[in-house]
């Protein structure tokens, strides 16, 4: 990688884990101990300045580790929380002041909240300036696109749609994702290709996901984000994620400098409200 990241380069999806806080019922075990100091070292290696800390599945509705990290990271950090209908308006406002800007919905194994929680929760959270952050198998987009378009405000879809497995670019499910981008309220994170790719090594590594990234960049670069997914909890068996190599994969998929700057800095600045 011989390209310097732009000022304000932002990692929009990563997690912290503190062994002093046990995993919650319904969530996976902790993958290890991953601290703010560890992450700052990664930021320095890659040239990142801003970060969005996403509540991990391991902690379900206990946002304490995420909020402590936001306090330590300061003004260059934002958060994505997991709240419930029982979370008070005062608690939501306190999290907003702490830097939280989104609510996570995870429609896969270990998720605290699925798609059925979107309509009940998002109107109140939207009033506090939050968006919906959604992880799903992108193949269900043909069924749930209508639901997503009825949400108030913005919504973010993780990991290039996380199609399991990646489809062709003319597949109806991927076309549904492009149509969601056309609303101007949908955002897609270009991250974690190893979570869905059927090719994890060799000269064609991630090429099935790369085709989707290329189509997304050609269609709506103004609605795309980038992320590390550090510390890569529970990667595929035998695959060891390399953060520098994954950043290089993104740069290879996005050859135009103006698109890189949009995706790395300008777009997250708009969505997460960085000054």
UniProtKB/TrEMBL annotation:
<dbReference type="InterPro" id="IPR032466">
    <property type="entry name" value="Metal_Hydrolase"/>
</dbReference>
<feature type="domain" description="Amidohydrolase-related">
    <location>
        <begin position="10"/>
        <end position="274"/>
    </location>
</feature>
<dbReference type="GO" id="GO:0016853">
    <property type="term" value="F:isomerase activity"/>
</dbReference>
<protein>
    <submittedName>
        <fullName>D-galactarolactone isomerase</fullName>
    </submittedName>
</protein>
<dbReference type="InterPro" id="IPR006680">
    <property type="entry name" value="Amidohydro-rel"/>
</dbReference>
<dbReference type="InterPro" id="IPR052358">
    <property type="entry name" value="Aro_Compnd_Degr_Hydrolases"/>
</dbReference>
<keyword id="KW-0413">Isomerase</keyword>
<dbReference type="Pfam" id="PF04909">
    <property type="entry name" value="Amidohydro_2"/>
</dbReference>
<dbReference type="GO" id="GO:0016787">
    <property type="term" value="F:hydrolase activity"/>
</dbReference>
């Amino acid at each position: 990688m011989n390209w310097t990241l732009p000022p304000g380069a932002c990692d929009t999806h990563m997690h912290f884990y503190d062994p002093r806080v046990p995993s919650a019922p319904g969530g996976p075990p902790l993958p290890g101990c991953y601290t703010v100091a560890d992450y700052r070292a990664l930021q320095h290696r890659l040239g990142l300045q801003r970060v969005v800390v996403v509540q991990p599945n391991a902690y379900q509705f206990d946002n304490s580790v995420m909020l402590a990290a936001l306090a330590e990271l300061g003004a260059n950090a934002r958060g994505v929380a997991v709240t419930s209908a029982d979370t008070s308006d005062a608690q939501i406002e306190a999290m907003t002041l702490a830097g939280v800007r989104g609510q996570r919905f995870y429609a896969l194994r270990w998720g605290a909240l699925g798609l059925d929680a979107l309509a009940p929760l998002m109107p109140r959270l939207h009033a506090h300036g939050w968006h919906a952050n959604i992880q799903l198998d992108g193949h269900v987009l043909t069924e749930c696109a209508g639901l997503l378009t009825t949400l108030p405000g913005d919504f973010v879809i993780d990991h290039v749609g996380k199609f399991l497995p990646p489809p062709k670019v003319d597949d109806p499910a991927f076309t549904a994702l492009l149509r969601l981008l056309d609303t101007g309220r949908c955002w897609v994170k270009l991250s974690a290709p190893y979570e869905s790719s059927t090719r994890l090594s060799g000269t064609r590594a991630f090429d099935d996901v790369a085709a989707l990234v290329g189509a997304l960049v050609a269609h709506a670069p103004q609605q795309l984000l980038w992320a590390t997914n550090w510390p890569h909890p529970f990667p595929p068996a035998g695959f060891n994620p390399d953060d520098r190599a994954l950043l290089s994969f993104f740069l290879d998929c996005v050859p135009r400098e103006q698109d890189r700057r949009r995706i790395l800095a300008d777009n997250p600045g708009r969505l997460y409200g960085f000054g």
